[in-house]
Amino acid sequence: MSFQYLGFATHVPRIDPSLTIYIAISVACFVPVLLWGLLKASCLHSRQHKPQGCRKLGLGGKSYLADELDERYKGAVAGQHKGSATWRVKSLWIYPVKSCRGVELETGTVIGTGMEYDRQFSFAQLSSKFPVSAKTPREEKATHTWKFITQRTLPPMATIKTEVWVPDSSSPTYSEWHPNIRSGGVLVIKFPHIQCEEGFMGKVKDLLALVFAQPEREVHIPFNPTQEQISDKGYAVDDMEIWKDKPRSLIIASTEKEDRWIQELRSYLGITNHFALFRVSKDDQPREVYRCAPRKDKLGYQPAVGFQDAYPLHILNLASVRDVGDKLQQGAPPLSARNFRPNIVITGGGAYEEDCWKRIRIGVYQYYVSCRTVRCLLPNVNPVTGKRHGSEPNRTLKDFRCIDAGDPRNACLGMQMVPASEDSRIKVGDEVNVLETGEHLYIKQ
């Protein structure tokens, strides 16, 4: 109106309303994409290149458990071998960092402590609220102990991804002198990560994180550091309490040392105490396994574990998982074998047939089935989302699976095993033969 009043209206270009709409739509689409690009670019420093001289351990395609909810796994699986039900290995798993996401394998090596690369690392927090250093005298540490943590109390640990990269002599970047090779490979840890920034950009990134997938923080760690690497990186040694054991272990990273990435992970998990990543120390006395396990005079070696709870191997029958899943209360999410964090998932026979196994052969190697696996609340945690269900499957399991007189108040599912030799191989598809059956009596820790 003012342009017309001043006589300038004829000199002002008219904008086509359709062009205005086009510009508005373009800006509305372009700005989020631009901001998303800025968010990704700002997180590039958190992403690492593939470890030189190594290949990634694990499956290249979809999981062998992708069809685990198929109806045929509810009972004996006919047709696995010459038309009859035959036990076979369906899926293999290792968990490089205790209670973090696992790595599925096609083939694996079994050593005296279980699957190679399994549970060699564990996160822990100081049990008291005041800080101490690794050099503090042991007397002062009596009430100040590093204690392992798991999904039992911190369900979001399920979202921490792990990878194992092993030396590969066919790699063009392979060199026997490269640190990755000398340390026997690289552990990669990934977890959801948002840069903590103040001001406008911090608010923009927080907003975009709600719209787009969260960026990941990626950390590379020597899998089995040499003495030289331990010295160069300043890795300390301290006791870490895991159940009734206190093995001397390497501290790989700690909030006491102000390692940036582990401070970020502590914030993500909501931990307030000092927080650290420990590794099994090859120089320390191993955590030998007794209780229900066979002894050295029978095996030729005494079974031991890394950071497993109790035994070297855990085997799980998919038919048993499916039967429990069918009994869950209405509204409970589908139950996966992954909820129970097995090393070996098998199919072939009916549900719970494994309860009485004492000795089996997988492929050409023998294993002693030591006892039943007593279940805690950890299977209530969704292995993908890290969300814990309020009651299932624990409630249903306790309704009908408190079957072992050694621990009559807790439910059992799956079996704990010990390898008959310290060096064996296992692969998906291996036939499982039951050599001996009998009664089991669980012995508590």
TrEMBL record:
UniProt keyword Heme, yes or no: no
Alphabetized Pfam families for the sequence: MOSC (PF03473), MOSC_N (PF03476)
PROSITE patterns: MOSC
Domain MOSC: 263-435
UniProt keyword annotation of Ribonucleoprotein present: no
Keywords for this protein: Membrane, Transmembrane, Transmembrane helix
Recorded superkingdom: Eukaryota
GO molecular function: catalytic activity; molybdenum ion binding; pyridoxal phosphate binding
TM ranges: 20-39
Protein name, entry field: MOSC domain-containing protein
Species of provenance: Letharia columbiana
